[in-house]
From TrEMBL:
Gene Ontology terms describing biological process: exocyst localization; exocytosis
One Pfam family matching this protein: Sec6
GO cellular component: exocyst
Naturally occurring in which organism (per UniProt): Climacteris rufus
Record PANTHER family: EXOCYST COMPLEX COMPONENT SEC6-RELATED, TUMOR NECROSIS FACTOR ALPHA-INDUCED PROTEIN 2
Name of this chain's protein: TNAP2 protein
Gene symbol of the encoding locus: Tnfaip2
Amino acid sequence: LHMGKTMKEDLTVVVKYIKQLYPPEFNVFSIYAELYHDYFASQAKKNAESHLEDKDIYLLLSWVHNFYLKEMRKDHALAMELDKVKLGSLLPSSLSKELEKKYLDSEVVTVKNSLSKCLDKEIQGWKEDVEPEKLNGHYQSELLGIFAIQSLYSGQKRAEDISTAVGEELSRRLLRELLPFLQSYRDAFEDFKEKSRKHTNYKPILIANINNCWNFR
């Protein structure tokens, strides 16, 4: 972030004060921008090749695909000059793909574990005959009807913030994980319906889970 801020401030100075001191054929802005970009790329590559935690991989990918140059393009003068310079990506394609795969694998595991924990806690509530929460006067499973879906949505939103392509790939992977989760949910619910008819909150739990179906659809 510090490097990015410095680059923006310096390139702004180049546009406003330095560029006009040289003949156009010197391409002063391009020289400054390319030198900054080359240094940025070397740092990004160095970081990418080191051992990174999952959160670090996400931050690096976000910077490379989304944040880099985006803030600078908000400045009209800088945007016009940057459009004339083909800076390319900060990371080699192969290294970027490798990081994306690690990120996607990690994100799928995180969401999958979150869904599993939600279902386990929900089933425990059924066994303990806990009355479901009410939302706007209607029985609703907060864990499954809200939190589980938020886990899916949040995971996909994080991926989309990196790039559209990464978001689409994660969406495909999460849909593959969603099917076995819903099957496990259905099997557990069918088991509850058969074995727990004498529970005090049997009917409210049924209603809450029926209401969940609409949310999942």
